[in-house]
Amino acid sequence: MASSASNLLSSTSGTGLGQGIDVQQFVTLALASDQANITHLQAQQTQLNSQTTALAQISTDFDNLRATAFALSDPLGALNALTTTSSNSSVVTATAASSALAATHNITVSSLATTSSYYTNSVAATSVLAAGSFNVQVGTGAAANITIDSTNNTLGGLAEAINTKGIGVQASVINDANGSRLALVSTTTGLPGDLTVSGNTTGLAFTKAVTGSNASQVVDGVPISSTTNTVSGVINGVTLNLASA
Fold first, then answer.
1. In the chain, is it the N or the C terminus that has fewer CB atoms within a 10 Å radius of its CB?
2. CA nearest 227: which of 115, 105, 93?
3. Who's near 3: CB < 8 A, 6+ residues apart?
4. Does residue 5 surpass a pLDDT of 50?
5. Would you say 190 and 199 are in contact if contact means Cβ atoms under 8 Å apart?
């Protein structure tokens, strides 16, 4: 490197001091060795990064293999899971845990659990509702008073006001060819979620669409009532999924 710089100075020297010297090329030659070292280190760093990534992937693969091997050896795992068969899957299906016993059961579904709901008469979407109030009761719980005033006197505003109360009712606005209606749907299925609207002093008329009722079935001759259509605990280790009566 020193020889190259010396040759450059010799070949470019003139009669005056510094005349004819290509300073940029001189500096480039002087730094070439350092740049080569930097390039080599960068290449090593790239290689180390690739190796680190590969090791991380290997570690992940080992963890996945370990988890899979454990699942295969787990006495409650997939290899030991039981299957169920229904003579009429449109009425009832089931899933079985490893704690279930192999057996045949007779199941009759009389009715499904229902979700209670109400709706109002139709009004124009832009209608301003008259002031007033009404009560909404979920099951045997305390009735919640809903008031219509200047802050919520549209169907959308009223639905939002009901939802923010957290009383176990989901309110929404339904739009169709007849106009807009307020809909109230219980967030609890079965009899415990049955809705009651009372004390209505507003201009809205409420109609009960669905009464909340429990599912009714007979399992091996034993009458069973359930608040949902997913029934556990009746047959040891088995969950029944009721689909229709």
1. N
2. 115
3. none
4. no
5. no
Longest alpha-carbon distance in the chain: 120
**Cα 125 to Cα 15: distance, rounded to the nearest angstrom:** 97
DSSP H/E element including 28: helix 23-73
CB distance 123 to 155 below 8 Å: yes
pLDDT at 26: 67
Q: What does the block give as tokens for 171?
A: 């309110």
Burial (CB < 10 A; 0-12, 13-18, 19+), residue 92, is buried
Which has the minimum average pLDDT: 13-27, 84-98, 221-235?
13-27
| pTM for the whole structure | 0.65
Residue 161 has pLDDT above 80, yes or no: yes
Q: Among all chains, which residue has been given the structure tokens 């010396």?
A: 6
| Sole residue written with tokens 């009712």 | 169
Q: State how far the alpha carbon of 210 is from the alpha carbons of 20, 113, 144, 206, in Å.
A: 100, 11, 20, 12
Query: Is pLDDT above 80 for 34?
Result: no
Please name the residues in contact with 106: beta carbons below 8 A apart, sequence gap of 6 or more. Answer: 218, 219, 220, 221
Residues contacting residue 2 through CB under 8 Å, at least 6 positions apart:
none
Whose tokens are 């201009």? That residue is: 203
Mean pLDDT, residues 206-231 taken together: 96
Give residue 74's pLDDT.
58
Instruction: Give the CA distances from residue 108 to residues 105, 219, 220, in Å, rounded to whole numbers and listed in that order.
Output: 10, 7, 9
Strands (E) in 140-221, as ranges, are 144-148, 169-176, 179-186, 195-198, 206-210, 215-219
- Mutual orientation of helices 23-73 and 2-12 as an angle, nearest 10°? 150
